[in-house]
Specification:
Elements lengths: L8 E8 L3 E8 L2 E9 L5 H21 L3 E9 L2 E3 L4 E5 L2 E7 L1 H9 L3 E5 H12 L8 E6 L3 E7 L2 E2 L30 H5 L1 H13 L14 H9 L3 H25 L3 E5 L9 H10 L3 H4 L3 E4 L6 H14 L8
Parallel strand pairs: 1-4, 4-8, 9-12, 12-13
Antiparallel strand pairs: 1-2, 2-3, 5-6, 6-7, 9-10, 10-11
The structure holds zinc ion.
The site of zinc ion has 6 residues, from loops.
Length: about 325
């Protein structure tokens, strides 16, 4: 980091993912420093210790260039209580429950800390400095291992009554569909996620479908995407069925919310194999007047989306700007 472009003010962003935690220092519209710590925390205490270790490092890095951490945004998968800054439950960490993350980080950094769902952070990054700048009504689908989502309505992050809004992955699509991680059947996530794509290929191979993929290849949506790009019919079908489900869901949401833009993000969407079919089906499933002029865009931020969004969220909250819809 160069001392000259810091001017003493930095915010921190933290993204708590399934297998690692990403910590960044954000200043002047860019990532000044990034630290990634792998983890397999079994308990709330181990987990808290890991977060504190990362935050202590960020503080030191900031101090090294004469800056200080003015505030921290934390993005985490799962159910978060934004108002109290408490991580209620995350499917990635079954042993970790009810951790007062914002308070723990605030005490370590002697500065305010804010907790938000990671998908909400990713959309906030797009809205504050990515593809959705200057749009007031934006819907995001994040397709990775599961399917997440988030909403900007009337220029504010919409989190709903409990703070859990935007669970696109659990839109019920089928009456008697596949079993979802949430315990219900036929959710969008069962077909449209990386896991859904893998499951589609595995069961087709088991039924004897022709493909150059092996059962091992079917264990990774990324590998399946490479086969699809090389023209493997089954691999292409797997992405197509996922894109169709996403399109149906997007069409329904367009009818409800009349948005300006639909953003598609997440590791599985990065293959570029979902967008065209999703858009085509969304058009079929929405009212023409509502579909007209809706922009579809690939997310700008990739791996760092949630960490950047968390930092930007903290930055705006520190400046006293209204982030949330009331
Ligand atoms: Zn579900």
């Amino acid at each position: 980091m160069k001392k000259s472009n810091i001017a003493g003010r930095m915010v921190a962003g933290v993204d708590i993912g399934g297998t690692k935690v990403t910590f960044i220092l954000w200043s002047d519209e860019s990532i000044e420093y990034k630290l990634v710590l792998p983890y397999a925390a079994q308990s709330s205490r181990e987990f808290s210790e890991l977060i504190l270790k990362g935050m202590a490092d960020l503080r030191q890095r900031a101090a090294d260039v004469g800056a200080s951490v003015m505030g921290t945004g934390i993005g985490c998968a799962g159910m978060v209580d934004q108002k109290r800054g408490v991580l209620r439950f995350s499917p990635n960490m079954p042993g970790v429950r009810d951790v007062a993350l914002a308070q723990i980080v605030a005490e370590e950094t002697h500065a305010p800390a804010y907790l938000e769902n990671d998908a909400n952070c990713a959309l906030f990054a797009e809205w504050a400095s990515g593809v959705a700048v200057a749009h007031s009504n934006v819907v995001m689908f994040s397709v990775g291992t599961g399917v997440g989502g988030a909403l900007i309505l009337d220029g504010h992050l919409y989190v709903g009554r409990h703070g859990f809004a935007g669970e696109m992955g659990h839109i019920p699509m089928l009456d008697r569909g596949l079993l979802c991680g949430c315990g219900r059947h036929g959710c969008l996530e069962t077909t449209a996620s990386g896991t859904g794509i893998e499951r589609y290929v595995k069961s087709a191979l088991a039924r004897g479908s022709k493909s150059s993929m092996t059962a091992k290849d079917a264990g990774s949506a990324r590998v399946i995407s490479h086969f699809a790009q090389n023209g493997d019919h089954l691999a292409r079908q797997a992405f197509k069925q996922a894109a169709r489900s996403l399109g149906r869901a997007a069409g329904g949401i367009i009818n409800i919310l009349d948005p300006d833009m639909v953003v598609l993000g997440g590791g599985v969407a990065e293959s570029g194999l979902l967008m065209d079919e999703m858009k085509r089906v969304a058009q079929q499933c929405s009212l023409p007047l509502l579909f007209e002029g809706v922009e579809f865009a690939m997310a700008h931020y990739r791996n760092d989306a949630a960490a950047v969004g968390a930092a930007l969220l903290a930055d705006q909250l520190l400046k006293g700007q209204a982030v949330y819809s009331m």
